[in-house]
Amino acid sequence: MKRGFYLVMAAQALSSLADNALFIAALALIQELSGPDWMAPMLKWWFALAYVLLAAFVGAFADSVPKGRVMLMTNALKTLGCIIMLAYTCFGMSSVQQTWLICGAYALVGIGAAAYSPAKYGIVTEMLPPSLLVKGNSWIEGLTVTSIIIGTVLGGALISPHVSSLLLTQTPLGSFLSTPAEAAIFCIVFIYVGAAICNLLIPHTGYYYPKQPRQISVLLRTFFGYVGILWRDKLGRISLAITTLFWGAGATLQLIVIEWGHAHLGLRLDQASVLMGISAFGTVVGAILAGRLPLQKSLVVLPLGAVMGLLVLCMPMVSATYTVYTLLFLIGAAAGYFVVPMNALLQHRGHVLLSAGHSIAVQNFNEQINILFMVALYTLLLKMELHINTIITIFGLAVFGLMTLIIVTCKLMLHRDPSLEAQIGQTGHGQALK
């Protein structure tokens, strides 16, 4: 592993940590303004919308500027989103308007994340050969999920009565901040600054791509052409379908766990955030174990996606602390072991067929569309006032059914064309662009 790769990991860990802590802090800020329950999934929805709307442009941007510099600029944009959240009382708005301003500021953070992602994953394919992609992805995913754990728990800790009281009464923050959520967001700004410092130290990889078009119509036409290339490629189609389903399910599961912790277990937001941390810890363990799997064997993990759906179905049946923690850990572990090889396979096919930045942008576009759909459906079910255990049952059955369909499709595809497995791990770059 090159030294620059470790700087990428450090920057990603800090930026992801801040993103997840900010989500909890933004939720708390909406609660302080007495926003409705369905505003929580709206935060996720607006965040994901930025990925979809910018998908045609961020790949070209990531391939036209050194990726370390892209990561620096996007962290600056995330910091601006935090500052807008802190200034929510300065615009003479009603409390309802302020909650929408917070959603808008979090959407700005989403814009930064949308541009950050192709640079983050794209630079991995530039720094590492195909033989190290699963291992590299294992490190990236492991650190990302570790940062999700720490960030989620940190966000919960910062808004907890004890810590927020100390911040507001025993530090100078109390002189210009008035609520636990405001103090938490102020602290999170400095984590983004730390990520930016790491971005500054990332070396140029020496990769250069063809000059990227700037006309919007050309970018859109080119981008959707790339979407078609990956969906038409058989291995790309399977890995893209799986990661699309996984990330949509994962984003929705985060929201489900928070509501489940409140409605089923009677926990506060800062306490429910610990449940998300337990699941994320399981994902870290699964991701680390998946790092031992060679890229050529990536398809063997497919059944774990169906297992994850079955484990989710068990959530309404548990309430004791140790069983809740065990179940969430197992869900996370299955997810981590399952998604790391699939991400690596998709990145490999994208790199071989397209380019680092464009392939990740295509991946993000599909994944975030599914997040928009699944989070919107979850929001609708909440507005229909269905009990959270009913929602969990619907969710678990949907994941199990869709994964079973994908597994059957994959087996049929490999049976008809056994040569496909030989394409996993092949070298090359931008073959579909020549």
Give an account of the 3D structure.
- This protein has 14 helices and no strands.
- With 434 residues, the protein is mostly helical.
- The protein has a single domain, classed as MFS general substrate transporter like domains (Growth Hormone, Chain: A, Up-down Bundle), CATH 1.20.1250.20.
- The model has no long low-confidence stretch (mean pLDDT 82).
Short recap of the structure:
With 434 residues, the protein is an all-alpha fold. It contains 14 helices and no strands.
The low-confidence parts are none
Could you say which structural class the secondary elements and strand pairing correspond to? mainly alpha
Percent strand equals under 5%
**Count of distinct strands:** 0
Attribute tags:
77% helix, 434 residues, single chain, mainly alpha, Growth Hormone, Chain: A
SSE layout:
Blueprint (H helix, E strand, L loop, with lengths): L2 H30 L6 H26 L2 H20 L8 H33 L5 H27 L1 H9 L10 H22 L14 H17 L1 H30 L5 H22 L12 H10 L8 H33 L2 H28 L4 H29 L18
Helix pairs in contact: 1-2, 1-3, 1-4, 1-5, 1-7, 2-4, 2-8, 2-13, 3-4, 3-7, 4-13, 5-10, 5-12, 6-7, 8-13, 9-10, 9-12, 9-13, 9-14, 10-12, 11-12, 11-14, 12-13
